[in-house]
Amino acid sequence: MFDRLFTIAFFVLLPFQLLGNNESYLLDFTQIQGNALDWFEERGWEEQVDMDKMNPRFENGSLVIEAKDAVSGVFFKDFRTESKRLSGINRIRINWGVEQYPEGADWSGPVEEKRNVRNAIGVMIFFGDENQESGSVFIPDIPYFLALFLGEKERPGKAYLANYWQKGGRYFCISCNGNVGEFISEMDISNTFKDQFGFDPPPITGIAIDADATNTSSKNGRHSKAYIKKIELLP
Question: Do the domain assignments include residue 215?
């Protein structure tokens, strides 16, 4: 999704579910069955770009996203109603994994030049309502965000910039080094946001699950395959 035109619907206010209070949020796929596209739609998530073509499904206690073609996709959830913003969140923990990275993904090189910034799977956390410039008249402006992704060649601990949203977006590879299998990734999102942008984060106003295999090569009959078991936003 990182350099393809898509529209994150920040103009539609959608309901969401909290667990316990307004300081934690749990997305748990370990017991879910049925059609993934229907499940997300019924709970107020939007399927965007070509997520429907990435074979999203519930399998073995996970949300699996498998790109058979060179496409990208997003599931997006809006938290922007005044009473349903997520405040007091400081950490994110994700239980996820990857079976195949997109062949040809490359986040290295000068940020002024267009790079093939792709990912097998990622999670984006959006902050506040103020849209930040995308860097292109053809790409929508969106609020500040931090994104975690599983990468094959990228360096852990480095804040990456994509081709667009360089003012308001930062991407972190967790875990990296080409490993496949299952990982538990954690980030102090409050301090990370402040380190990157110089001020305390506004309330969380959205979350997205994405994958991008555009401009990559096919191998084993697919372009990428990854999964998520659980996402936790914690105080």
Answer: yes
Q: Which helix (H) or strand (E) holds 38?
A: helix 36-42
Non-local CB neighbours of 48 within 8 Å, separated by 6+ positions: 6, 7, 8, 9, 73, 74, 75, 76
Domain count for the chain: 1
Task: Identify the three-state secondary structure at position 132.
Answer: strand
CATH of the domain at 138: 2.60.120
Query: What is this structure's pTM?
Result: 0.90
Q: How far from chain centre, in Å, is Cα 65?
A: 12
Per residue in 112-152, pLDDT (tens digit) is 999 999 999 999 999 999 999 999 999 999 999 999 999 99
Q: Would you say residue 4 lies in a domain?
A: no
- The reply to whether 20 falls in a domain is no
- Per-residue pLDDT of 63-90, as tens digits, reads 999 999 999 999 999 988 766 788 899 9
Asked, for residue 8, whether it belongs to a domain, the answer is no
